[in-house]
Amino acid sequence: MPEISHKLAEFLIKATMAKDIREAFDTVFAEYLKLKLRYLDETDSAFMQKWKMSFEDIED
To answer: Which H or E element spans position 8?
Structure first.
């Protein structure tokens, strides 16, 4: 796990209501991945609407 400052660790624990920094970091990272995947899915959908075809159609 990367080394982080004491202030940041304390903030993450409070913000996530976690028991320790490992749990807090895991929570933040998991939420980041969910948001990133949702953004990519929305971007994918926007391109499919714009070009009126799926990525599978483009590959053919």
So the answer is: helix 6-16
Structural domain includes residue 1: no
pLDDT digits (tens, 9 = 90+) for 5-55: 999 999 999 999 999 999 999 999 999 999 999 999 999 999 999 999 987
- Could you tell me if residue 38 is inside a domain? yes
Cβ distance 20 to 29 under 8 Å? no
**Tokens 């159609």, residue located:** 57
Residue length, the chain? 60
User: What total number of domains does the chain contain?
Assistant: 1
What's the pLDDT band for 1 if we cut at 50, 70, 90? low
Residues 6+ apart with CB under 8 A from 24: 9, 12, 13, 15, 16, 18
